[in-house]
Amino acid sequence: MAASARSVLSLSAWDTGRIWGRHSVLVAKCLCSATAAAQPLSAQQLAENLRAKKQEQKAKEREVPRDPVQRRVQELKRYTQQLQNVHPNVLSKALKRGILHQDKNLVVINKPYGLPVHGGPGVKSCITDILPILAKMLYGDKAEPLHLCHRLDKETTGVMVLARDKEMAYQVQELFKTRQVAKKYWAICVGVPVHSAGMIDIPIIEKEVQGQQKHHKMTLAPNYRMENGKTMKVRPNRHAHVAVTQYQVLSSTLSCALLELQPITGVKHQLRVHLAFGLGCPVLGDHKYSDWNKLAPQKLSVGILKKLGLEKTKTRYLPLHLHAQQLILPSLSSENQELNLVCKLPKFFVHSLSHLRLEIPEKD
């Protein structure tokens, strides 16, 4: 009996030692792995991790959506990114192919979506940078760079006038300043204006938006306000700019409309502000002015998303549907007649019209 007790005790001691030994090895391994994790990654390891992440991102971008509208959104996103990386010579050739009018004084181009007019932080390609190259392509190596006569927002497409020399550029700029140039824009807006045609005459001012993301936006500075059901005139803000826009509904459904806009004045973001805050019908794809308080993707109804075939998470890639459709320049000399410059709608605009069941009016 005593012998068996001794054997049990000795076995227990041996088992205990074995268990503690395994535990020590496990603790050591954990400590080693924790120490390895705490050590900074080498440059090679960091490069490999970054390369793996990039490859994963590229694989996601290469995935082709089944829905045709989703594919078009993906193409527009890729196209905008490519515009910033394309060589100036290639971009100049593309603009040359899309020339709407050319004479001894002027060159009129079809400005593409996503191409800024001026440079700035993060801008690799812009129209002003390629004006010397485009001039050489059109008129030879000794040609003077072309000159801007006016500007369009980065996201706006359509008619853009360039001049061959400074004097002509100044002459055309004066026509714009003195409101002698007739301008017509087409826009798809979210919502339908109460009146099918009218004039918006509300001054515009730039203000800082307070919140998590402080930023500046243009907004309305009306000369009248409602008080006890009566319209009261208020003192005009000395920093506000006079802004007047004529509009007409060309086609509409219950949820959206195609508008023709004629800006009488030329204030920054005038059309977008007047539609969003004046009519309460923001431009489709206007992620800046659809909400005053924040910078966020435009909120669209389930009905519009369904018609466009868009997922809610993809609305940030929806382009601005604002197109400079026509410019009428008065005669620049006794020899010339007025110039009627018309630019066809971009493909994405036409596709959206079709999906939203908005009709393009027949030409007169």
TrEMBL record:
Gene3D superfamilies: Pseudouridine synthase. GO terms for biological process: mitochondrial tRNA pseudouridine synthesis; mRNA pseudouridine synthesis; positive regulation of mitochondrial translation; rRNA pseudouridine synthesis. Interacts with 16S mt-rRNA, mt-tRNA(Phe) and mt-tRNA(Met). Forms a regulatory protein-RNA complex, consisting of RCC1L, NGRN, RPUSD3, RPUSD4, TRUB2, FASTKD2 and 16S mt-rRNA. GO terms for cellular component: mitochondrial matrix; nucleoplasm; ribonucleoprotein granule. One of its GO terms (molecular function) is pseudouridine synthase activity. It is found in: Mitochondrion. Catalyzes uridine to pseudouridine isomerization (pseudouridylation) of different mitochondrial RNA substrates. Acts on position 1397 in 16S mitochondrial ribosomal RNA (16S mt-rRNA). This modification is required for the assembly of 16S mt-rRNA into a functional mitochondrial ribosome. As a component of a functional protein-RNA module, consisting of RCC1L, NGRN, RPUSD3, RPUSD4, TRUB2, FASTKD2 and 16S mt-rRNA, controls 16S mt-rRNA abundance and is required for intra-mitochondrial translation. Acts on position 39 in mitochondrial tRNA(Phe). It catalyses: a uridine in mRNA = a pseudouridine in mRNA; uridine in 5S rRNA = pseudouridine in 5S rRNA; a uridine in tRNA = a pseudouridine in tRNA. The gene is RPUSD4. It comes from Phascolarctos cinereus. Belongs to the pseudouridine synthase RluA family. Residues 105-276 form the Pseudouridine synthase RsuA/RluA-like domain. SUPFAM superfamilies: Pseudouridine synthase. Pfam families: PseudoU_synth_2. Keywords: Isomerase, Mitochondrion, Transit peptide. This is Pseudouridylate synthase RPUSD4, mitochondrial. InterPro entries: PsdUridine_synth_cat_dom_sf, PsdUridine_synth_RluA-like_CS, PsdUridine_synth_RsuA/RluA, RluA_PseudoU_synthase.
